[in-house]
Amino acid sequence: MLISRLNAMTSPNRNGAHNVADSQVTLARVMEVMDANNLGNVHGGVILRAVDTTGGTCAARHCGGPAVTAFMDEMAFLEPVRLSDILITKASVNWTGNTSLEVGVRVEAQRSGSVDHIHVGSAYLVFVAIDADGRPMKVNPVHAQTPDEQRRFREAQLRRESRLALRRRIEELRKES
Length: 177
Ligand SMILES: CC(C)(COP(=O)(O)OP(=O)(O)OC[C@H]1O[C@@H](n2cnc3c(N)ncnc32)[C@H](O)[C@@H]1OP(=O)(O)O)[C@@H](O)C(=O)NCCC(=O)NCCS
Description:
binds coenzyme A, Thiol Ester Dehydrase, Chain A
């Protein structure tokens, strides 16, 4: 996997917050025969792995240490990725909580011989920062500065409420039955 963009990390500001740009990561890799499914396109699992790797790298950079994947939202595959395409995954912290953070990952493909990027899909993942014993630990807050970053923060907050409400509802249903 080629790291095509990795911003220099800066220290947190005086409130202990990190800027979104400081942990953004872009990874890129040419798709090869081993990445193919039986139809000759790229296997969805290969794309999901790249999403998790890019998102996890971004989360770890924000946290300054390991972060595990706690949740991955559903992802629609909008376009096939073909062999010889360059698969490009771009990750950015959208939101931070107490010990968890949401990272958004945009997936693009650059067809062989073309300079255009095709939007293949987007995914949202929740990571949890862990200490040496694997226990959740506090994350530095993210500082959403630009209008886009602030919109993503608000939208991520809504997704979090919906994930937790769904989890609670399922737990209640299981207790009832
Ligand atoms: C992720 C993990 C550390 C959470 O541990 P836990 O004891 O359930 O921790 P908590 O209940 O205190 O939750 C920690 C945070 O994760 C969030 N979280 C946990 N499950 C979540 C879910 N399904 N959706 C959204 N957020 C979730 C909690 O809301 C909390 O966030 P906050 O501290 O910002 O409020 C634990 O479940 C784990 O180790 N899972 C396996 C991870 C793994 O192996 N991943 C794949 C390879 S990296």
